[in-house]
Recover the amino acids of this structure.
């Protein structure tokens, strides 16, 4: 019933035996890896000894619909979190494993604003976007742009280093506990729609993320900036020959993607959990969204995240014992079957 | 024709033992006697060195970027642990080989997945395999002990002669001997025509295929060999610590391993060994400064290494030794930047 891959578990005993003591020591004192996902599902998945789905709605059809709804909400959230990565990884061909760090930054900014300074939640969300975008832009200008032409190995090492730094820094500043953001009462609870329990918060996620997706699609397809971005991605040399400022386009896109991740991080504090290990726990999920979805359009990652969200919620609900490895297996099979993603085209490089 | 005539002698010259290599191993052996109270951490370094050697074989020589090398380490660790726990193969050396072979089989099977696709797909697939194995190990916690790990492993004496002692002396010499033997094997492999063909593949797979090298078969072969090495490293870990917990599969282990190799430099076999020493020293220093947040500084080291540039960094490190050698013996550039450093 654990959502995350490894990093939750603390240091290995080997290290203390060896006298080093604190390998992964920073990761040791933290809340137990628990039912990370339980809060997302409106009806809790059956646990051992609780007798199947008896604790849920009696009608299997509404259970399916409720799961579907939660899956869609989760998928939408994953899309907003990961679509920035679709641009950096898929389009700019930069392996940015540190994408989750920007999401975490946004989430923590929102948490501090709402919880400590008493801002309203809906004012915190844009600030989460802006702060993550600013951090992203600064890092892009200072560090990332030097690495665009480097090998994938260098990019991996660099971004893993950033992840380690962000995890330790947030742990140091904010502590290692899971952070909750105070929600306005409008968003709490759920209501029934034709017998299907609709969580208000999840509904809001779907609305916000749906609007964002439509907006992104419009920007990409209809605006001048969108056509510049597509040109810069298709062929940077030809694009700069036509007078398009390619580095600027990339920097802006990178910052925008980070901002979206930050917004996603703020939204996900309630359903995915926000703690310093966020970038490590969800790294694989972002990567799945991008690699499975392909990068030729934003429709690919969007469908991939919906699939992933629904499959994950359904998997957790119906086969809780199989745990996360359904997802991993599906991912590996898809990658073997279509190395460029389900909806992708041949990679440029 | 002349180029071809040059290749053989040049390869043979490179394959010969250099005096500095002998010196390196003598220093290693001397450490065992100079620091008799530090066996545990030295064992740790030797294990890590063997693990890094394994990654060097695929990353440095074949150019496969793997984010999930801990998969084989973990399989080796659990195999050795289970064999010892249930007394299937009580003798450590045999159990070590058996664990290595299990990892080899896994490496062979997964190599078909890894050779497909480009760097990014490989990253994802290797990472996915490690996560998958971790999830499996957690799922079958009745066998693996889940988060608590395998407990109560008792190791039999090595070859029925040398019992493991609490100071780790036996464990250290055992690990060192295994690592040295496997190093000799790796050295033989990379200097063979097979190893040369791997380097050709790393530098340009298309050209390598054009001159008749069976690219995929070679990659499968070296990936399998590397899995064997990693499995042995994992088994050594379990045997010398009498522990195997879920974190043998963890992403941090794979990421740390890359750092080890990058510190030491890829593509000349000694990179992993030197990197392991430096990495543990760094870890020691950082964890005395900030016991809880040393990971931050490790991350910073990674970022700085990449930004400065790996090749440039190694040139800086080698500047002083080269200067000294040039002054003393009048030769130039005796210790060169390993050619495999360029990705």
């Amino acid at each position: 019933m654990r959502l995350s891959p490894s990093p939750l578990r603390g240091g290995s005993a080997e290290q203390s035996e060896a006298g080093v003591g604190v390998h992964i020591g920073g990761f040791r004192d933290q809340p137990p890896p628990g039912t990370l996902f339980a809060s997302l599902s409106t009806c809790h998945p059956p646990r051992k000894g609780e007798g199947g789905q008896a604790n849920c709605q009696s009608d299997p059809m509404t259970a399916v619909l409720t799961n579907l709804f939660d899956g869609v909400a989760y998928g939408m959230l994953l899309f907003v979190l990961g679509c920035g990565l679709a641009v950096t990884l898929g389009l700019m061909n930069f392996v940015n494993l540190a994408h989750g760090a920007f999401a975490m930054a946004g989430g923590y900014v929102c948490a501090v604003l709402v919880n400590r300074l008493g801002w309203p939640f809906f004012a915190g969300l844009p600030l989460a976007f802006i702060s993550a975008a600013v951090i992203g832009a600064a890092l892009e200008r200072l560090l990332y742009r030097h690495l665009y032409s480097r090998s994938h190995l260098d990019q991996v090492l660099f971004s893993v280093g950033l992840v380690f730094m962000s995890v330790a820094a947030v742990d140091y500043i904010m502590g290692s506990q899971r952070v909750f953001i105070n929600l306005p009462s409008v968003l709490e609870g759920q209501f029934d729609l034709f017998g299907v329990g609709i969580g208000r918060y999840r509904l809001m996620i779907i609305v916000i993320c749906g609007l964002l997706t439509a907006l992104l699609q419009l920007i990409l397809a209809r605006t001048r900036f969108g056509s510049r971005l597509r040109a810069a991605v298709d062929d940077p040399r030809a694009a700069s020959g036509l007078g398009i400022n390619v580095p600027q386009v990339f920097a802006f896109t990178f910052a925008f993607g980070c901002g979206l991740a930050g917004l996603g991080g703020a939204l996900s504090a309630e359903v995915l959990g926000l703690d310093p290990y966020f970038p490590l726990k969800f790294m694989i999920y972002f990567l799945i969204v991008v690699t499975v979805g392909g990068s030729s359009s934003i429709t690919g990652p969007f469908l991939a995240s919906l699939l992933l969200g629904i499959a994950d919620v359904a998997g957790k609900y119906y086969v809780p014992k199989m745990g996360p490895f359904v997802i991993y297996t599906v991912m590996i099979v898809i990658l073997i079957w279509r190395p460029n993603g389900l909806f992708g085209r041949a990679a440029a490089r | 024709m002349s180029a071809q005539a040059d290749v053989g002698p040049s390869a043979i010259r490179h394959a010969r033992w250099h005096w500095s290599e002998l010196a390196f191993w003598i220093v290693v052996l001397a450490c065992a006697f100079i620091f008799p109270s530090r066996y545990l951490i030295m064992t740790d370094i030797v294990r890590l060195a063997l693990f890094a050697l394994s990654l060097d074989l695929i990353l440095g020589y074949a150019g496969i970027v793997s984010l999930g090398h801990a998969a084989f380490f973990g399989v080796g660790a659990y195999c050795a642990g289970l064999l010892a726990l249930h007394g299937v193969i009580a003798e450590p050396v045999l159990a070590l080989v058996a664990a290595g072979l299990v990892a080899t089989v896994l490496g062979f099977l997964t190599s078909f997945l890894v050779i497909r696709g480009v760097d990014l797909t490989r990253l994802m697939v290797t990472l996915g395999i490690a996560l998958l194995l971790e999830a499996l190990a957690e799922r079958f916690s009745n066998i693996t002990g889940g988060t608590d790990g395998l407990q109560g492993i008792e190791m039999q004496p090595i070859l029925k002669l040398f019992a493991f002692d609490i100071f780790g002396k036996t464990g250290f010499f055992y690990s060192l001997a295994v690592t040295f033997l496997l190093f000799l094997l790796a050295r033989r492999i990379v200097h063979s025509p097979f190893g040369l063909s791997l380097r050709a593949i790393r530098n340009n797979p298309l050209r390598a295929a054009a001159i008749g090298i069976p690219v995929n078969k070679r990659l499968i072969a070296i990936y399998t060999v590397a899995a064997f090495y990693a499995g042995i490293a994992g088994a050594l870990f379990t045997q010398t610590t009498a522990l195997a917990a879920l974190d043998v599969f963890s992403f941090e282990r794979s990421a740390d391993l890359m750092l080890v190799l990058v510190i030491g430099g890829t593509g000349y076999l000694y990179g992993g060994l030197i990197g392991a020493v430096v990495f543990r020293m760094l870890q020691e220093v950082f964890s005395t400064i900030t016991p809880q947040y040393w990971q931050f500084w490790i991350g910073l080291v990674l970022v700085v290494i990449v930004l400065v540039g790996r090749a440039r960094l190694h040139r800086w490190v080698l500047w002083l030794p080269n200067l000294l050698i040039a002054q003393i013996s009048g030769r130039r550039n005796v210790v060169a930047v390993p050619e495999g450093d360029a990705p």
About this structure: The CA atoms of residues 87 and 129 of chain A lie 17 Å apart. The first strand of chain A starts at residue 190 and ends at 193. Chain A touches chain B through 67 residues (CB under 8 Å).
